[in-house]
């Protein structure tokens, strides 16, 4: 009886002292607010403009970007990666692991020309079972100079059980947008809610690279519209070059070599108030350098998990692995 | 200092000249001293269970009852106040934030109030000196202070509100008692203390956390024999 009591007491003590949820040193995750070279995906060659989709709940991402690695610097093709994003609430370590992923649709897209400006409309991590809300196919927009000048194309894709992007049909040139000049970096503005689809891209059709707005035909997607209303966004387009627009929510980020920067192309942003875009604001010298920064992509982080948002971009600043590299940085959350 | 030496000398003389003898089977002690955290509780890096605890102070009283030549029982009531190193906390946040903004940490102190009882193994008295090995078990009320870490760029990056919890506590101690008279003496002690309270964390993902509190007490104090006097 006495032995049993002692054993019970010891077990009780063991239970009481063995609980091990430790104290967290961070309430939420923090994406490093200083620029980090995304060394896990960069190569000795140019690693350039990208699109990134993150599912914060599962902490997974899909990344597609242009790189000249496959042709040893001859031309740009798309390469794909998948990985995990993780923030340790105890140590404060932020990790983005990466592994190459062979997106099937890229085999259909990559050509002898240069492919730039990927923009895909689905996050493959969101629903691994492929039940998408618009009929099962998504659109992959990109720029290619296979026809001589840079034009924007769209290719449909579906997702298989491995969440791979499977090409559906042929490439569709955006005839309502493309001209004999260069058009590139297509991005859809989902916040402007109407019967039309609205998007932005950049073009040098007026002599310098500017940001242009395109509105589809009523009730149609831009990729389905034979004609579309195209207009220059004068608030964002100056005498300098504005390239690589990317819209997420009410913020547009882009690259420009306009005055007020830190040298070369800098990253700028503009906020949409429901009617118009604000004057561009430079991201500052914590992100920009005296070298070139291109193709910023903003990925809003889940508010419950992170205090700031993620931006990925490319730069040829010193300290990289060679040529242009991809970098990521945490930026303040824009409401 | 001179006064203390004078008093101790007087007590020694009284002890030598005393004709009465007291049975030392019930002893009251009181002491105070340093509290020194150890293990993860003393860790000052952002790691699992790190407490960022620095040195503090403590006070305790105890009642000892010898039950034989080698054994006894004891009860102890103690209080410890242990500081948090805000500077080291800030240094760690500075490291993680890598120069983005400035970080500030404000934190109160850990406070532990414990009540324990246990067993004593006693080396028989020699040269008016007892050496006791004590093993105690009981409960402790641990008060976890407010902690707020703020980054000038992001805002509050960590906050824990003041909370308290009772938890099982244990203690292993060595105490040396030296009798100056049949009734009075002084003691020096060293103890290892452990408890693991559950603390509420409203802003944390887990809502609660367990903090292993580990500290050493190094004390000096006085003792008084409450035993009966015999001629």
Overview of the molecule:
The complex is a heterodimer of chains A (335) and B (231). In chain A, 7% of the residues lie in helices and 39% in strands. Chain A is mostly beta strands and 335 residues long. In chain A, the strands form 5 sheets. In chain A, strands 2, 3, 4, 5 and 6 form a 5-stranded antiparallel sheet that branches. Chain A has a 4-stranded antiparallel sheet with strand order 1-21-20-19, with no helix packed on it. The model of chain A is unreliable at 125-135 (pLDDT under 50). By secondary structure, chain B is mainly beta. Chain B has a single domain (29-225), classed as Porin (Beta Barrel). The radius of gyration of chain B is 22 Å and the shape is elongated. Classes of the chains: A mainly beta (335), B mainly beta (231). The interface between A and B is medium-sized, with 26 and 41 residues.
Order of helices and strands of chain B: HEEEEHEEEEEEEEEEE
Largest sheet of chain A: 5 strands, antiparallel
Count every beta strand of chain A, where a strand is a DSSP E run of 2 or more residues.
21
Whole-number average pLDDT of chain B? 89
Instruction: From the alpha carbons, calculate the radius of gyration of chain B and give it in angstroms.
Output: 22 Å
Q: Find the structural class of chain B using helix and strand composition.
A: mainly beta
Q: What percentage of the residues of chain A does DSSP assign to strands (E)?
A: 35-45%
Q: What overall form of chain A do the CA principal axes indicate?
A: globular
> How many beta-strand runs of chain B?
15
Indicate the mean pLDDT of chain A: 88
The domain tally of chain B reads 1
Q: Could you state the oligomeric state of the chains shown? A: heterodimer
CATH class membership of chain B: Mainly Beta
Whole-number radius of gyration of chain A?
23 Å
Unreliable spans of chain A are: 125-135
Protein traits:
heterodimer; A: 335 residues; mainly beta; 5-stranded antiparallel β-sheet; globular; B: 231 residues; Porin; 8-stranded antiparallel barrel; 2 helices; elongated
């Amino acid at each position: 009886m006495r032995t049993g009591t002692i054993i019970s007491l010891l077990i009780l003590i063991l239970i009481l002292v063995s609980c091990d949820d430790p104290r967290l040193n961070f309430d939420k995750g923090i994406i490093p607010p200083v620029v980090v070279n995304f060394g896990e995906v960069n190569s000795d060659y140019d690693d350039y403009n990208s699109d990134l989709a993150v599912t914060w709940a599962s902490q997974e991402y899909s990344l597609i970007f242009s790189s000249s690695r496959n042709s040893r610097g001859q031309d740009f093709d798309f390469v794909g990666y998948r990985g995990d994003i993780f923030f340790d609430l105890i140590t404060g370590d932020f990790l983005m692991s990466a592994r190459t992923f062979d997106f099937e649709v890229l085999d259909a897209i990559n050509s002898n020309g240069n492919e730039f400006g990927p923009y895909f409309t689905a996050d493959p991590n969101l629903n691994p079972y492929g039940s998408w809300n618009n009929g099962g196919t998504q659109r992959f927009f990109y720029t290619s100079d296979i026809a001589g000048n840079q034009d924007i194309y769209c290719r449909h894709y579906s997702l298989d059980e491995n969440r791979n992007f499977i090409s559906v049909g042929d490439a569709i040139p955006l005839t309502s947008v493309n001209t004999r000049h260069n058009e590139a970096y297509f991005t859809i503005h989902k916040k402007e809610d109407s019967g039309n689809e609205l998007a932005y891209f950049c073009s040098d059709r007026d002599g310098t690279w500017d940001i242009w707005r395109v509105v589809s035909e009523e009730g149609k997607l831009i990729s389905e519209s034979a004609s579309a209303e195209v207009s220059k966004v004068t608030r964002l387009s100056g005498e300098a070059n504005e390239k690589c627009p990317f819209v997420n929510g009410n913020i547009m980020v882009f690259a420009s070599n306009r005055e007020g920067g830190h040298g070369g192309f800098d990253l700028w942003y503009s906020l949409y108030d429901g009617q118009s875009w604000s004057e561009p604001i430079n991201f500052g010298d914590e992100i920009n350098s005296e070298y070139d920064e291109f193709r910023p992509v903003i990925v809003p982080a889940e508010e419950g998990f992170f205090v700031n948002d993620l931006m990925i971009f490319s730069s040829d600043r010193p300290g990289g692995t060679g040529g242009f590299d991809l970098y990521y940085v945490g930026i303040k959350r824009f409401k | 200092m001179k006064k203390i030496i004078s008093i101790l000398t007087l007590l020694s003389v009284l002890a030598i000249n005393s004709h009465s003898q007291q049975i030392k089977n019930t002893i009251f002690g009181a002491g105070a001293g340093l509290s020194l955290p150890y293990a993860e509780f003393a860790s000052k890096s952002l790691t699992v269970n790190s407490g960022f605890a620095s040195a503090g102070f403590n006070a305790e009283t105890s009642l000892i009852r010898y039950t034989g030549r080698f054994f006894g029982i004891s009860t102890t009531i103690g209080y410890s106040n242990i500081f948090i190193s805000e500077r080291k906390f800030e240094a760690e946040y500075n490291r993680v934030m890598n120069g983005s903004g400035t970080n500030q940490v404000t934190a109160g102190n850990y406070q532990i109030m414990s009540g324990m009882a246990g067993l004593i193994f006693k080396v028989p008295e020699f040269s008016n000196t007892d050496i006791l090995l004590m093993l105690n078990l009981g409960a402790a009320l641990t008060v976890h202070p407010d902690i707020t870490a703020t980054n000038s760029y992001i805002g509050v990056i960590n906050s824990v509100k003041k909370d308290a919890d009772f938890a099982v506590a244990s203690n292993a101690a060595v105490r040396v008692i030296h009798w100056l008279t049949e009734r009075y003496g002084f003691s020096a002690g060293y103890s290892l203390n452990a408890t693991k309270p559950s603390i509420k964390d409203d802003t944390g993902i887990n809502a609660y956390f367990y903090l292993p509190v580990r500290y050493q007490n190094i004390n000096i104090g006085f003792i008084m024999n409450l035993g009966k006097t015999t001629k």
